[in-house]
Specification:
two-stranded antiparallel ribbon; elongated; three-stranded mixed sheet; about 60% helix
Length: about 230
């Protein structure tokens, strides 16, 4: 964009990305999670935080909403400073902010839309089932987008998205179970399983399995061979 002489367009896009990522950073800092890295790409930013999977689901929801809320607030800010901006730059900021907002709520990895949907699914289903539903939804949305408006950017973006989700599926599951084995999480919600099936384990629930007069905790359920 800079080499093409689109200086204002480049500045506007960077401002929007900064505003969006700042929203995430504010929420992450308020929740006291350490940030591992912040990477800014041409159309998106990715923040990696040192956070366990088995933390509160509402924290994931708030972090996902942080960027979106900041962008909505930026619309108000734009209206207040409208007189101090040229018409072209104002329209540029407004347009980019709107497009970035709509783009980020699409339920496709690594966008906030899928992270938000996955967090909400964790309230209803087990961690494994939520992940599978998220992958299925991700693929379905990508197919729809490609049918409506195919492009090289969407092909590259969708390929990265699908490969990442499948590549880290088993890894994330193992991390989820290992966290519950090695860390003492306190949950008010308790469930007894009829069968020691680790794939039924939901976030924010403590699980037990009863066999006759004996009651087994999660370590038995997770480590038992299928």
């Amino acid at each position: 964009m800079l080499l093409s002489g689109l200086f204002k367009e480049t500045i506007a896009l960077l401002i929007i990305i900064f505003i969006h990522e700042l929203g995430h950073i504010i929420v992450i800092k308020l929740l006291k999670y350490p940030i591992s890295s912040i990477t800014i790409y041409p159309f998106i930013g990715i923040i990696k935080i040192n956070k366990k999977i088995n933390t509160k689901i509402i924290h994931d929801v708030l972090i996902s909403l942080g960027g979106i809320i900041n962008q909505l607030g930026f619309f108000i800010m734009l209206y207040l400073i409208k007189k101090n901006l040229s018409i072209y730059f104002y329209q540029l900021l407004f347009s980019y902010n709107l497009k970035m907002l709509l783009f980020n709520i699409i339920p496709v990895y690594p966008l906030d839309g899928l992270k938000l949907v996955n967090s909400l699914l964790n309230y209803l289903f087990s961690y494994q089932r939520s992940y599978v539903i998220s992958i299925t939804l991700n693929i379905a949305i990508i197919i729809v987008i490609l049918l409506i408006k195919p492009s090289y950017f969407i092909y590259l973006f969708s390929t990265y998205s699908i490969i990442y989700l499948f590549k880290y599926y088993q890894f994330n599951l193992k991390v989820f179970y290992l966290e519950r084995l090695y860390f003492d999480y306190y949950y008010k919600k308790i469930k007894y399983l009829k069968k020691p099936n680790k794939n039924c384990i939901k976030r924010e629930y403590k699980y037990f399995y009863q066999k006759g007069c004996l009651i087994y905790d999660e370590s038995y359920i997770i480590t038992k061979k299928d």
